[in-house]
């Protein structure tokens, strides 16, 4: 459906623009990879420091235990040496500074270190998982990117031109260089990545596109593009299968010599390879491509077998 450009200025208006696309493909944002990596590095360095402090405490425990043995107290059982969770928790609740001496003080320090490690480690791993998920987001397609630029650069959209740096926080968005577009993330990945659908999207959108009267941008459903490309592929497949069967029928009926079988198999092999090449050129996923080719080959072999039996 045709969508109007927002009439509000600045960030609210730009947010309205991104939210108008019914396919959600216009929801494009900056990745901020530099900030994300800097944050992860700092968090990692902080955890390394906490790990060093924990190792130092463990070494202090070992040294204290050795000293007790040298002093003739091998059975000495202190809070710190036992590292009992209940005792550590009890030491953490002591608020009187006069009681925080010796092993009790060290036990409370260990408790505080454990709590700090727990919080920092949880945040660090959450940040890692979030970054992993963000890395799986695709950059916007060239067409989506160009559409956003066209909407921003409308002659009567001075408010977007004035705030373009603030809106996207980077000059990468106003540059159509595909390498710089990698700095952006689309919250909805493209529904297709094969060449046929891309060709349909570029050259055969008649009857699908609906121009916006307020903009040079045309809005249309990506699902419609996908279905149209699927219909084109099915039509071509039926024509190819029908043509192959029409060529095989005279071979099966008119050639009576024993060598006719080899001619038929050779013809089937050539047609199958050509069909495989066509699917490969379209950029079909490997599983779909081999499934389609196997089905095509099965139809030809069954057709030849039935004719031989008849």
Automatic annotation (TrEMBL):
On whether Membrane is a keyword of this UniProt record, the answer is yes
Would I find Membrane among this entry's keywords?
Answer: yes
One Pfam family, short name: DUF6594
Parts of the chain that traverse the membrane: 231-249, 261-283, 289-306
Q: Which residues form the DUF6594 domain?
A: 17-300
- Give the record's keywords alphabetically: Membrane, Transmembrane, Transmembrane helix
| Protein name as catalogued | DUF6594 domain-containing protein
């Amino acid at each position: 459906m045709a969508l109007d450009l927002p009439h509000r200025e600045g960030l609210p208006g730009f947010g309205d623009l991104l939210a108008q696309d019914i396919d959600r493909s216009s929801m494009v944002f900056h990745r901020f990879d530099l900030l994300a990596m800097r944050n992860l590095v700092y968090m990692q360095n902080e955890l390394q420091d906490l790990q060093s402090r924990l190792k130092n405490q463990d070494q202090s425990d070992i040294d204290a235990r050795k000293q007790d043995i040298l002093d003739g107290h091998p059975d000495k059982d202190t809070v710190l040496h036992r590292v009992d969770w209940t005792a550590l928790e009890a030491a953490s609740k002591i608020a009187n500074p006069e009681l925080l001496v010796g092993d009790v003080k060290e036990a409370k320090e260990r408790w505080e270190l454990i709590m700090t490690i727990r919080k920092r480690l949880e945040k660090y791993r959450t940040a890692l998982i979030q970054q992993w998920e963000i890395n799986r987001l695709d950059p916007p397609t060239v067409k989506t990117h160009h559409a956003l630029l066209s909407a921003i650069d409308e002659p009567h959209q001075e408010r977007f031109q004035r705030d373009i740096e603030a809106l996207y926080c980077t000059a990468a968005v106003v540059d159509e260089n595909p390498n710089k577009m990698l700095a952006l993330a689309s919250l909805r990945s493209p529904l297709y990545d094969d060449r046929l659908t891309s060709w349909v999207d570029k050259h055969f959108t008649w009857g699908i596109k609906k121009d916006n009267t307020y903009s040079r941008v045309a809005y249309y459903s990506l699902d419609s593009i996908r279905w149209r490309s699927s219909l084109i592929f099915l039509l071509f497949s039926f024509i190819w299968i029908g043509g192959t069967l029409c060529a095989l029928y005279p071979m099966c009926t008119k050639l009576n010599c024993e060598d006719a079988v080899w001619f038929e198999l050779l013809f089937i092999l050539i047609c199958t390879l050509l069909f495989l090449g066509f699917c490969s050129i379209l950029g079909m996923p490997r599983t779909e491509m081999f499934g389609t080719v196997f089905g095509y080959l099965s139809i030809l072999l069954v057709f030849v077998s039935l004719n031989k039996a008849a």
